[in-house]
Amino acid sequence: MIRVLLADDQALVRGALAAMLRLEADLDVVAEVGAGTEVLDAARRTAPDIALLDVQMPGRDGLSVAADLQRALPRCRSIICTAFSRPGYLSRALSAGAAGYVVKDSPPEQLVDAIRRVHAGLRFVDPALAAEALVGGASPLTGREADVLRATAEGGTVADIAEVLRLSRGTVRNHLSSAIGKTQARTRAEAARIAETNGWL
After folding, report:
1. Closest by alpha carbon to 5, among 57, 42, 60?
2. How far apart are the first and last CA of the chain?
3. pTM of this structure
4. Residues 30/5, Cβ–Cβ less than 8 Å
5. Mapped to the 3 state alphabet, what secondary structure does 27-80 carry?
6. Rounded Cα gap, residues 172 and 88, in angstroms
7. What is the per-residue pLDDT across 137-174, written as a single tens digit (0 to 9) for each?
8. Exposed (0-12), middle (13-18) or buried (19+): which is 45, by Cβ within 10 Å?
9. Radius of gyration of the chain, Cα coordinates, nearest whole angstrom
């Protein structure tokens, strides 16, 4: 049996996934949680082989949780299962140690296949998203530019961002200008929105 932990903040989605997976003779759903902060404790308690993680959850996002699981429970392999079909998220998920990435509008058989492949030691990436990632490439933003855009998305002024990131206002303006150019945006708010949409933040 392949032991599966489900983490999704939407109870209806979580319940539907659990019901679907329990129809498979070789899959056993051993835990269901609704927040990223609950995953590690549940995994330690139930020893899953696979953790199926949503990206956006309360407390901690699925990408951070995948990295936590890889460090704390390396035998538990993570699959990101999300509505976000974005190359940036895929890249970040793989960097965090996830072994699979499935988009929620995929056919159910694809998710089941992903679980079996990842359990067998392979990787699985949604084929359409993998093709898009190859064409689109990696994030053009530096780490500092991404930090500045994240702070911008939270509504910070240049002075606020400079204080939070411990940078000078001039450095913040330079990073914003560079990020606006790289995203081909007109304003810093638009640059933050484009970066978020592409999964670069």
Report:
1. 42
2. 37
3. 0.69
4. yes
5. EEEEEEECCHHHHHHHHHHHCCCEEEECCCCCCCCHHHHHHHHHHHCCCCEEEE
6. 23
7. 567 888 888 889 888 888 778 998 998 899 999 999 98
8. exposed
9. 18
Q: E-assigned strands of 75-150?
A: 77-82, 100-103, 124-125
Tokens 């200008």 -> residue = 177
Q: Which amino acid is at 200?
A: W
Its sign, for the CA torsion 177, 183, 184, 189, is negative
Token pair of 33, please?
């949680």
Task: Give the pair of three-digit tokens for residue 128.
Answer: 């359409």
| Model confidence pLDDT, tens digit, residues 182-194 | 888 888 888 888 8
Q: Which amino acid is at 136?
A: G
